[in-house]
Amino acid sequence: MRSELGILLEKLRGKRTLRDVSKKTGLSHTYIRDLELGIRRATGKPIKPSAHVLKKLADAYQYPFEDLMRAGGYEDLLQKNTNGDSNPCDIWQILSSENETALWKGRVLDENQKKEIISVVEYVLSRSV
Questions:
Q1: Cys bridge to 16: 20, 22, 55, 122, which one at CB 3.0-4.6 A?
Q2: Side-chain half-sphere exposure of 79, counting CA atoms within 13 A
Q3: Comparing 4-8, 11-15, 64-68, which segment has the lowest mean pLDDT?
Q4: What number of other Cβ atoms are within 10 A of residue 38's Cβ?
Q5: What is the DSSP annotation of 40-70?
C-alpha cells in the first residue's frame, strides 16, 4: 500500500522525469522512485527517508519542508502549537538525548555533531557569565 508521502512526492514531480529530479537533489532516480512507491524495491520493505532527504526534495519541488516532514511521519519533530508558534524546547535535552533527532537546516545531526554543539554552546555560555 502506498504511503501518503509517496503519493505526494509523485504528485509534486508531475511531468518531470526521475532523472531531472535526481540531478536537482543529488539522489538516485531509483531511490526517488522507491520513495514514491513507499517501499525499497530490492527488499520489498517500507522505506522512510531522513529529514535531510526530505529537505532536498522540498527544495527541488519548491514545496514547504514542514509539509513533507508531516507526510513523512516526522510530526513530532515539528513541535508547533495550534497558533503556529514554536513551542519552547530545551536545546540541551534534544542534543544530549540519543532518542531525539536533532536537525540543522533540515540535516539530521549525528551523535558526535550533537556533542560538539553542546561543547560550543557551553563554552559560549561560560564566557557570558
A1: 20
A2: 12
A3: 64-68
A4: 17
A5: ETTTTEE----HHHHHHHHHHHT--HHHHHH
